[in-house]
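Table S2 (text version). Query chain:
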Amino acid sequence: MNSRIKLIAVDLDYTLLSSGFEVSKRNKEAIARALDRGVAVTLSTGRMFSSALPFAETLELSCPLITYNGAYIRAPGSDRPLSHVPVEKEHALETVRFAAEWDLHCNVYINDRLYMSKAGWEAQMYMDNCKVEGIYEPDLEPLILSSGEQPTKILLIGESGRMGEVKARLVELMAGKAYVTTSVPEYVEIMNKNVSKGRALAAVASFLCVKADEVMAIGDGYNDIDMFRYAGVSVAMGNARDEVKSLATFVAPSNDEDGVAVAIERYVLGSSEQASKG
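Corresponding structure-token output:
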């Protein structure tokens, strides 16, 4: 047991949430027990704030939430962000043009609203999974140019077999300009170059006067690796890729086997129920 943990950061999709995008009873109870002990809990997700908020409310979290992969930090109940680091317009436009050239579905997020380039399976999958409604905007360039706000994030969606190449090309195209990452195989996400979940977690920890070695980060995706590098304890889910698991302090059971609860019981609550590292 690591009784020094004062802040837990938990990814949502395929980490805290089951494959049916629900919070299990055991995960919910473990988080409630951690809160009762005075441990702060935040969600750290690539999702929109409006998509993450219902889970925070269900779990009765008050800590600032890390959303859009760290580009937008805001506490439940607050109408103003603690931090917002958007994509610069010129880089957003470059990404939107790239998506059009590659015939990829493109999401643009402005003022916590979702604008989608086209209807299709990609749009339906995203809206179903995240429980949000998008606004169809076939020509995203005028939207970006005319908006008084810069986009918080851009998301490209496509068949998983294509997205490895898409990510590689975008990493090359956006070198020194933007941060490109992946959360699930069908997604490639683009944020400001100064954004990451790790930087956002450091900001929340500083806000709470918590040291890095008092933080536990739990995740499954490549976008969680920066959190792992920052936190004193890092937990990868059993369903994570091997590259992610190799960087974790501990490998918990999968998201469908209450892996988050197992990690909290092991490092915060002192439960004898522990998963073997694998």
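Notes on Table S2: The chain has two domains: 7-84+196-269, 89-192. The chain has a mean pLDDT of 94.
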